[in-house]
Amino acid sequence: MVMEKSFVYGIAVTDYNFTGREEETKRLKANFTSGINSILISPRRYGKTSLVDHVCRHLNNDDMIIVKLDIFGCKTEYEFYNALAVAVLKQTATKIQLWMDEARDFLVRLTPKIGIPLDPVSEISVSLGITPETHSPEEVLNMVEVIAKRKNRRIVVCIDEFQQVGEFENTKQVQARLRSAWQHHHYTSYCLYGSKRHMMSKIFLNRSMPFYQFGDLLQLQKIPTRDWMDYIINHFEAAGKHVPEQIVERICEVVDNYPSYVQHLSSILLNHLPQGGTVTDDMMSVAISELISTNEALYMQQVESLSAYQMNLIKAIVSGIHSGYNEKRVRSMFDLGSPSNLVRLRDALIERDLIFSEMRQLYLTDPVFGLWFKRRFLYA
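RESULT FIELD:
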């Protein structure tokens, strides 16, 4: 039996490393079961993929089929259609001949390239070569509904990194085509989620966009400290080590309950702690420095192309100024330029996913980036 890792970050987690999200799990499970479309929006590394995977593992697969795909690598509309068609075909049947039979009308104009690996554990590779000359968008988008009807089973299509659709050429028309097809599906529902909150918000929260009010919108919040407490303590105990409650509270506080960073910081502490040992405040300080250092290359890359004014706005936010940037005192203190310049600064940093706006206040997207920025540019 393979031992589960005590703390996992940067990838989707198994049930052993999943905690909290009881209400979100219940709601998403009900949506999948009832055929209601779902949209998940949150900052990066908040556990959207882990939540969807967790829900899928606890559904009765006799009643429905789950199709999952990640479209991060899709740069065009037809790259998306190819990825969608391959995922649907591969995940709605277990044998090649079976899914070729299910989609025989769809495949008749294609010569699919199928790679069967020698290793039975490896996945079959499929390339369809769908183009505007072989299939219209509607044919591709409706294929899953046709298969669902033939099987007389509900299908839920889960699409990760859906914000990529917002980058396609003529994106509004592409989105309109998707919405127009999918809104008429009765056997198929969709769960759409992505890692760029501002892009997802543009697609789903803008009244002028086709996907406005497409389904049940879940904006994931931070996992509260109470949901981390037993999880972290029990994982330390399982490894023969100990962590006091006040240290768990500090772990959550330092990283602002950011799920991936809670796991990462806990992992650093666990790995440096000797067998039978107990985490101390001094160990916490060392672990925080290591967490910041581990991510420094990424943070440097994020700021190296920023203008002086953009850096100054981040300095203001890190200093605890979240609003009132038009005030002469604040503009002068942080050298933010004219009021009209502020709008451009804000929009540019939101576009880069470095900050977000909430209730007319600005905040950093990444709390550990804030810790690094303070050390590097404010307290240096």
